[in-house]
Amino acid sequence: MTSYDVIILGAGAAGLMAAIEAGKRGRSVLLLDHAKAAGEKIRISGGGRCNFTNLHTAPANFLSQNPRFCVSALKRYTQRDFIGLVESHGIAYHEKTLGQLFCDGSSKQIVGLLLEECSRAGVELRVRTRVGRVERLDDGFSVAVERDEARDKFICHSLVIATGGPSIPKMGATGFGYDLARKFGMKVVEPSAALVPLTFDETTLRKLKHLAGVSLDAVVSCGKTSFAEALLFTHRGLSGPAILQISSYWHPGREISVDLLPQRDAFAILKQARSERPKQELKSILSELLPRRLALHIVESLEEEETPGAFGRMADLSDKKLRRVAVAVKDWRIMPQGTEGFRTAEVTLGGVDTNELSSKTFEAKKVPGLYFIGEVIDVTGHLGGFNFQWAWASGFAAGQYV
Ligand code: FDA
């Protein structure tokens, strides 16, 4: 049986980072993954350009049952540190919007950077390797693996679980990390899909299906949380950055509210239009403010509640009616039925309970030598490069102690 100082399960963003840091400290490191290549989610991320961090990363960008858990690691390895690494490899990048940094070229450059650093640090990487039984020994762990038909067993002092969450199973995502945590008596916060499109029930879908493809800037709110970004109507519900963001805060049975005309006073605009262009139809005025299909839909919905033609010429619309139109535009209420689930979710909400781990070392309090990093933990970032920054920061932290 070959022995290593450190075995890391999962060669994604967090596992690669932890492997590099542990290797740099002179540890012998074996990095295992069942996928055909390391960093597959990095490769497909950010539309192929990898939104590798966010200039404005702060603890407020993360959800967790313990919002303070992420603070220490994010301070010890910041967005500036990762940007420095990217620059040291000569990878060109740009800020797309809201502090989101993307490669100018391809996300493969980030995978290449990590693999090069791994190789410099002497990390042994084995992909296409299925992980079997993990056992606790007196002084470490044994890990049974299978590759092609060959079986093997390795032992290590420190075992790092970096197997991510179950989002996008067809990419090799599994709930392996949760099962292992439970096996060692650790609590797991119920995982659910996050950064995911929302879906409508049949009745709502029938009414809104013709809007599929319409997109606009909006402010989407759920309770006290709001996001101002783009919104997209789909064939099954709503998507776009504003919806993905709010999905992390939405629970079944809750309504979301959408401001379709952010930062503008719809009532004042409508009143002005009535006095300046009384002969125009409401639908023409609304079409100047919103995508035409959406404007027509709003007028039709209002008329359905009253009578056909009730929201026609501007001159015929009372202040009361204009207020109703303004509310339909500024506070559109919708009750999603569900989400598209793990099939398309970018991340997982929940995971290994942070109370089980040290926020300094990421070692399990009950199981010395066992570490959890990255998405497998109950720490979930907003959309915009925050999830990778968490993977880098938690991987870096654990890499200093394994
Ligand atoms: P990650 O999922 O990256 O790695 C886990 C690894 O473990 C995988 O390689 C997997 O094969 C392996 N594994 C799982 N089970 C195993 C088992 N049983 N045995 C062996 N190996 C196993 N974030 C961001 O900040 N910017 C972005 O642009 C994007 N874009 C994006 C697009 C899409 C389509 C998705 C799905 C996700 C994103 N994300 C993102 C989120 C980001 O990809 C995610 O938060 C990180 O990859 C999490 O890193 P981890 O290393 O924790 O898990």
TrEMBL record:
Residues 5-400 form the RsdA/BaiN/AoA(So)-like Rossmann fold-like domain. It comes from the Bacteria. This is NAD(P)/FAD-dependent oxidoreductase. Its cofactor is FAD. Residues 193-347 form the RsdA/BaiN/AoA(So)-like insert domain. Keywords: FAD, Flavoprotein. The keyword Transport does not apply. The keyword Flavoprotein applies.
